[in-house]
Design goal:
The protein has helices at residues 16-23, 54-59; strands at 2-3, 6-7, 26-29, 45-48. It is α+β, with helices and mostly antiparallel strands. The protein has one domain. A two-stranded antiparallel sheet has the order 1-2. It has a two-stranded antiparallel sheet with strand order 3-4. The N and C termini lie close together (9 Å).
């Protein structure tokens, strides 16, 4: 879900993307296939990510 300049992504707590986010808040968002391959010429967006707590998750 996108709200203003915020993109919300729902994921299970034990996924690789959240393990990476716990160690480094710099993120790149891009379209890819299930193997993580980007389409030729795909646009990427760089930003800062953070994991929401339970209360923030409910509000999102």
């Amino acid at each position: 879900m996108v709200s203003d300049d915020t993109l919300y992504i729902l994921s299970y707590a034990d996924t690789g993307k959240l393990k990476l986010l716990r160690n480094n808040s710099l993120v790149t968002v891009a379209p890819c296939n299930s193997a993580g391959t980007l389409p030729a010429g795909a646009m990427t967006i760089k930003g800062t990510g953070r994991i929401l707590d339970v209360v923030e998750t409910r509000k999102a």
